[in-house]
Amino acid sequence: MEFASLVYTITKGFPREELFGLTMQLRRAAVSVAANIAEGASRSSGRDRARFFEIVTMLHIAYGQRLVTDDQLANTRSDVSDMCRMLSGLKRSALSADGCMTRKVESTQP
User: Fold this and answer.
1) Annotation: CATH topology of 2-97
2) What values do phi and psi take at 107, rounded to 5?
3) Which is more confidently placed, 72 or 1?
4) What is the pLDDT of residue 103?
5) How far is CA 21 from the centre of its chain?
6) Quick one: angle between helices 2-12 and 45-64, nearest 10?
7) How many angstroms separate the CA atoms of 2 and 102, rounded?
8) What is the rounded distance in angstroms from the CA atom of residue 52 to the CA atom of residue 34?
9) pLDDT by residue (tens digit) across 33-54?
10) Secondary structure (3-state) at 65
11) Which CB contacts under 8 angstroms, 24+ apart, belong to 24-33?
12) In angstroms, rounded to a whole number, what is the distance separating the alpha carbons of residues 43 and 51?
């Protein structure tokens, strides 16, 4: 949720004409990732990772329009990298907890 809050803080400074453009797209993407993680949807971590990169791409566009500072872009990219690593770990942990990775298949043949 901190990431979504960060995106909201960054987009508050965007001009009004971007309200239905980059502002809403960035906010929806950030909230979507937070909601999926909160629901424990670790199997969708690939989609979440894609959503993170979508956010970074949009922030690069905003940076090109001088709507985002160097620090905001660098901090967001760093946060995205950290969260992608955490999502990967969450997925591995969830698979391991279910026994999907460690379950032995018993042979039915003599």
Assistant:
1) de novo design (two linked rop proteins) (1.20.1440)
2) -80, 140
3) 72
4) 46
5) 19
6) 20
7) 34
8) 11
9) 777 766 665 455 567 677 777 8
10) coil
11) 25/58, 26/55, 26/58, 26/59, 26/62, 29/54, 29/55, 29/58, 30/3, 30/4, 30/6, 30/55, 31/4, 33/3, 33/4, 33/83
12) 14
Q: Give residue 21's identity as a one-letter amino acid code.
A: G
Structure confidence by residue, pLDDT tens digits, 53-107: 788 888 899 999 999 999 999 988 888 888 777 777 766 766 665 554 444 445 4
Which amino acid, one-letter code, is at 91? K
Q: How far apart are CA 92 and CA 96, in angstroms?
A: 6
pLDDT at 39: 66
